[in-house]
């Protein structure tokens, strides 16, 4: 059979620990489902900086371009806080996103029934929550020029540029509409068209793509500040949310926290199809590198494992395998398996990172 | 005695109704506390557009510059949704902010004990919540140039510019530190210094002002996406939050919604002291114009009344009067007076906008 090429970049902090559990899952699918993965490994973030003075080497970048999918753990940590902007761990991640042209960042915010009480929101507000934020990832204020710190009239001024072209907006809108068709069929687009011209263009292009190509999908528009409110007030009103890079960064984190269990949430960043028909793709958990608990076997590997499930679905069209892996996760949660981050007020004994991985394998 | 000059701009939707209740409160203070208010009234937003084709006339702008304080109701409505960007109701508000140089927007998010169950968050997460967001209001991406929709390489591109000078950052930082000194003494500054150079400068300047002038205040820094998460997870960890115009727009709305009762939240926008020592100032409720309920006597006047209480405190140094007015509001809430927006699942009979105003006057 065809083999799937994967580049694993564990990164910093708890990245290597959670990735070790994904390795077990990959092995299981190879042993039991006749899949073939061609796995290589590389450095990103602080780990890459330590090894060769840059948060992503050109070799690793080239490898990432060549594989079917990249799996990333997490980047960053206090050790790197005072590095120059240009070599901060985050730059490695941003370089991957930009050079692979991963324009559509999919961030599901799903509330697992067994964990609904972890949310700071009332159970009846978040139970069954299942929204998907589609964030534009390769443009906007993250990458716009001019940018930098300049001197003007005797003082410094910090400048960044929010920039969106019609085609950049159109392609992420199409991604959102395509995803909505496989879900509840509703897209809400968020910007600040009342204040920003880039938001006016955003709204106009999303509406046009809708009217011309996706009239079957329900489209609404919301100002991003109201969007933040509505996510807090009644998040279940949403199906798919599409928004720009910066709003997406903030709103998807707010949405993630609604579920109360950040250690559970995966993400996929997708680009255009490569020559083999598979999209350029990078998968990573939403949680950070959590340096405070790194190396102690306390980290929750589920977000990273579910990121691999997204890879099965979006890169390899192995929908059944993805479903099975997700079901295995739900099963162990329903059985009460909990890593330290999932300890509620009722207490209990947490299991380790690797024990959680083993439980999921057993459930498969 | 000295008289206080006030310009009242009721604006659109429920603006006029809630402002009518503030008028009663003003009358009460004149009749019972020997204060003298010199009140004028003008148009803003859609109401101003209807009257003279612009969302704020030059005359009204000049009046706003001349008075001690402006009280604004709300602007906007579906009737004006398709107006050109340059004459949208919001532009009237933005012009006031910019030309009066109201750089510090104070948005308290306070959870009233009697209303804690209205929050979508659990009572134990929000009970007693009392945070103050200080948002920069006259710069950043709201006003930065270049901006607009241009054509490049045969397609349109929407551009806005995020721009902050050292002095713009310094003055809003000082406002936040000054306010923190009168509160719990803690400031958390939020930006995206990991991605934006304007955020790097922001962080650096806030730290410098702290170290040189406010070492007694506790200062921390947080990325804005994490800030959004932390507001949802555990909002009571914050005392004062200081952030830029766009992050402030989104984060303050999220914070407002944590309290569950938007109809309760006031705001103040302050500039530099005028010749008479009073700061340039505009006060307005956080809620919008709510066109769906306008003219029905259903609106909650409390946010607007509490905005006037902020005027008493920050413009007129009438701290006792402000305290009394706030206490009157708490009292009527504790007694069970509820406008329609404050009807919980337990039901009850809502009172009208004007009945709520009367109750507050009676409690004074
Ligand atoms: C680490 C950082 C650069 C990144 C971002 O701002 O995009 C992160 O917050 C995210 O959302 O993936
Ligand atoms: C009405 C709009 C222009 C305004 C803003 O974006 O600042 C509003 O959302 C606010 O927060 O006061």
TrEMBL record, chains A, B:
The biological pathway it contributes to is: Amino-acid biosynthesis; L-leucine biosynthesis; L-leucine from 3-methyl-2-oxobutanoate: step 3/4
The UniProt keywords, alphabetically, are:
Amino-acid biosynthesis, Branched-chain amino acid biosynthesis, Cytoplasm, Leucine biosynthesis, Magnesium, Manganese, Metal-binding, NAD, Oxidoreductase
Q: Identify the residues that bind substrate.
A: 97, 107, 135, 225
Its Enzyme Commission number?
Answer: 1.1.1.85
**Annotated site (Important for catalysis):** 142, 192
Q: Which PROSITE patterns match?
A: IDH_IMDH
The residues that the entry says bind Mg(2+) are: 225, 249, 253
Q: Does the keyword GTP-binding apply?
A: no
Q: What GO CC terms are in its UniProt record? A: cytosol
Could you tell me which InterPro entries the record lists for this protein?
IsoCit/isopropylmalate_DH_CS (IPR019818), IsoPropMal-DH-like_dom (IPR024084), Isopropylmalate_DH (IPR004429)
Which GO molecular function annotations are given, in alphabetical order?
3-isopropylmalate dehydrogenase activity; magnesium ion binding; NAD binding
The subcellular localization recorded is: Cytoplasm
This chain belongs to the protein called 3-isopropylmalate dehydrogenase
- The organism encoding this protein is Paracoccus alkenifer
